[in-house]
Design a protein that fits this description.
The structure is a single chain. Helix 1 packs parallel to helix 3. Helix 1 (34-43) links the parallel strand 3 and strand 4 (50-54). The chain has one domain. Helix content is 38%, strand content 21%. With 94 residues, it is of the alpha/beta class.
């Protein structure tokens, strides 16, 4: 019997068609700060309604309050945000 690849993944009230692309917001090897990337991705929400952000970067952000407000606003506008563990950034930032 052959495995059938799912067409979507349901996560709570969100249904993601797969494969899904999540642009990654990170402070590693990037030109912008997470706040700037999230602002950009929110403005492009009609092109891609999702992105991934690092827990490490959110926690260690100098603009954490502004970042959290922007993330909340992005979610309220219908964007799907995945938050990863931040291990990648933690490894490279020490």
């Amino acid at each position: 019997m052959q495995d059938v690849r799912p067409e979507k993944i349901d996560i709570g009230a969100i249904s993601l068609r797969v494969p899904a692309f999540f642009p990654s917001v990170s402070t590693i090897k990037t030109a912008l700060q997470p706040l700037d990337y999230i602002s950009l991705l929110q403005s492009l929400r009609d092109l891609n309604k999702q992105f991934l952000v690092s827990a490490f970067d959110v926690y260690h952000s100098r603009n954490r309050e502004n970042l959290l407000v922007l993330l909340s606003s992005a979610m309220k506008s219908g964007l799907t945000i995945l938050m990863d563990s931040g291990n990648y950034e933690s490894y490279w930032r020490g």
